[in-house]
Structure formats: C-alpha cells, structure tokens
Amino acid sequence: MLLPIEVANVFSPDECKKIISTTDEKAYADARLIDGARQDNTRRARITWLDDTDKDEWVFRRLLDTVSEANRHHFKFGLEEFSERMQVAYYGAETEAFFDWHIDIGDGQFARHRKLTIVTQLSEDDSYTGGDLETNADGNVRRASRACGTAMLLPSFVLHRVTPVTHNARYSLTLWAHGPEFH
Ligand SMILES: O=C(O)CCC(=O)C(=O)O
Ligand SMILES: [Fe+2]
Fold first, then answer.
1. Model pTM?
2. Which among 45, 83, 106, 178 could disulfide-bond with 111, CB atoms 3.0 to 4.6 Å apart, if both were Cys?
C-alpha cells in the first residue's frame, strides 16, 4: 500500500510538551533543503535535531516501534536503518513559516535512501492557525490530523506540504527510515 497512514497517540500530550521542552531554543537554525540550499520560497521554518541516545532515546524507541509496526502491516518496504537524526521543526506565525509541496527523496547521501517518512504533530491542534500538513499521494489532497501525538507515515516519494502558520506556532517531529533506493 502506497497511501499515507496515520497512527494516533504515538505520544501523549504531556510527552509532546516534554519533547518540545527538551529542545534547546538556541539550537534552532533556519531549515535547509535536501541539497543544503536555503530557499525561502520553498521552506521557511526553524529546525533542530534530537539524538537517538541518552535523553532522547525514548522518543526514538517510540518512533521505531511505530514505524516497524506500520511497515510490517502496511508498507512492507525494505528498511535497513535510520541514517539521520530526528528533526524537530518550528513553524512560527511571525514569519508565516511553511513548507511548500515537496518529496523527501533527493540527491543527498541520505536523502536518496529515504523510504518512509514519519511526521508527528507536537502542538495542540487548537493552539495555532494554519500549519496544516497535507499529502497528495494519488491526486487527492488529504489533510493530516492535527491532534498532538498523532503521526503520519508516508512513503518518502509522496508529495506533502505544510501550509503557512498564521497564528502562534506549530512544532513537528520528523524521522526518516532508510533502505535500498526505490527504482
Ligand atoms: O513539519 C512537517 O510537518 C513536515 C516536515 C517535512 O516534510 C520534512 O522535514 O521533510
Ligand atoms: Fe518532507
């Protein structure tokens, strides 16, 4: 199956808050695209990274369990590893942050091996305006659930975007699973 799926309650609302609070405000940097370019007309957001060791290991474990289960039952992709760290993204209304339509596979060393993308909502759904995560896998645009703790899993070749945030801010957590390139 190549359509995205959603898994609710991967994290509790308290756990979502905890993940946000473990990130260091000063560590956020302007997001770059897969090729390393900073392109304000494609993506405007601030991002930071979590490690799969020490204090953030429980976050990684939870995502790993979620990906494994979804891949076993739904996607059935050949997945081998997680080659990149977990990404926390901040989309603030002060810059009307957004991420235009894109796919996650690219020419980069890791980006070419991305197979499954898992995006988890970290902000309370009614705490911000705009900032909708949308996918277009088959010509139909689908809006992801805004419930915090809900994860959207999508093949990394599926188009997706985040609409501009117009009030307050949205945080998300993204992890990619890697394996032999799609052909
Ligand atoms: O923040 C999101 O909801 C999506 C992030 C994303 O698409 C990406 O980092 O490639
Ligand atoms: Fe993406």
1. 0.95
2. 106
